[in-house]
Amino acid sequence: MVDIGDDAPNFTASLAHDGIEPFDLAAHLGDGPVVLAFYPAAFSNTCTEEFCTFRDDLARFETVGATVFGVSTDLPHAQDVFRAKHDLPFGLIADPDHHAIEAYDVVDDSFKPRGVDVVARRAVFVIDDAGIVRYRWLAEHPGKEPDYDAVAEAVADAA
């Protein structure tokens, strides 16, 4: 389990942000804190509420130079449509091969009865410029949203 004080595991995936492009976490370190917000599924109610809240509160993160990314196991094109539909100004990372969710130990298999083997557990990690995890939050259940004030405070502390 990735914890506070650990080196953030690097991973590669696809990024939906004005099109689809390759993503490597290491390339985004060193320019301010990085927020990785893992979520189970694009277009679900709680995920939509969560990312619209991040969108509406984005200035709190940008003022300290932070970059927010959403991460789910959805395919890149689904991420791109979700992003466009909700006018999300930050990138969404598509992790259909589960590299990121396995690296951060946020695999959720509770959706199997609904026909989905594995999704991301709702979680938030804040990573500083040196690639150290400075904040970690894991949801007790998929419908629980993060404490946005705590995330913003962790981002400010990591800046």
UniProtKB/TrEMBL annotation:
Record bears the keyword Oxidoreductase: yes
Domain of life: Archaea
InterPro entries: AhpC/TSA (IPR000866), Peroxiredoxin_AhpC-typ (IPR024706), Thioredoxin-like_sf (IPR036249), Thioredoxin_domain (IPR013766), Tpx_Peroxidase_subfamily (IPR050455)
Keyword Oxidoreductase tagged: yes
Stretches of the chain forming a coiled coil according to its record: none
Name of the molecule in the record: Peroxiredoxin
PROSITE patterns, sorted: THIOREDOXIN_2
Positions of the Thioredoxin domain: 2-159
Source organism of this protein record: Halorubrum vacuolatum (Natronobacterium vacuolatum)
A single GO molecular function term of this UniProt record: oxidoreductase activity
Catalytic residues in the record: 47
Keywords noted in UniProt: Oxidoreductase, Redox-active center
